[in-house]
Amino acid sequence: NNYFKIAVLPGDGIGPEIISESIKILDVIAEAFQCKFHFDYGLIGAEAIFKTGNPLPEETLKICKESDAVLFGAIGDPVFDNNPEAKVRPEQGLLKLRKELGLFANIRPLKTYASLIDKSPLKREIIEGADIQIFRELVSGIYFGEKFTDPEGEYAYDICKYSREDIIPIAHMAFQEAQKRKKKLTLIDKANVLDTSRLWRKTCQEIAPEYPDVELDYMFVDNAAMQLILNPKHFDVILTENMFGDIISDEASVIGGSIGLLPSASVGEKNALFEPIHGSYPQAKGKGIANPVASILSVAMMLDHLNLHAAADKLRQSVEHAIENKYVTIDLNTKQYYSTSEVGSFIADHI
Amino acid sequence: NNYFKIAVLPGDGIGPEIISESIKILDVIAEAFQCKFHFDYGLIGAEAIFKTGNPLPEETLKICKESDAVLFGAIGDPVFDNNPEAKVRPEQGLLKLRKELGLFANIRPLKTYASLIDKSPLKREIIEGADIQIFRELVSGIYFGEKFTDPEGEYAYDICKYSREDIIPIAHMAFQEAQKRKKKLTLIDKANVLDTSRLWRKTCQEIAPEYPDVELDYMFVDNAAMQLILNPKHFDVILTENMFGDIISDEASVIGGSIGLLPSASVGEKNALFEPIHGSYPQAKGKGIANPVASILSVAMMLDHLNLHAAADKLRQSVEHAIENKYVTIDLNTKQYYSTSEVGSFIADHI
Ligand SMILES: CC(C)[C@H](C(=O)O)[C@@H](O)C(=O)O
Ligand SMILES: CC(C)[C@H](C(=O)O)[C@@H](O)C(=O)O
Question: What structural domains and CATH numbers belong to chain A?
Answer without folding.
Answer: 1-104+262-351 (3.40.718.10), 121-256 (3.40.718.10)
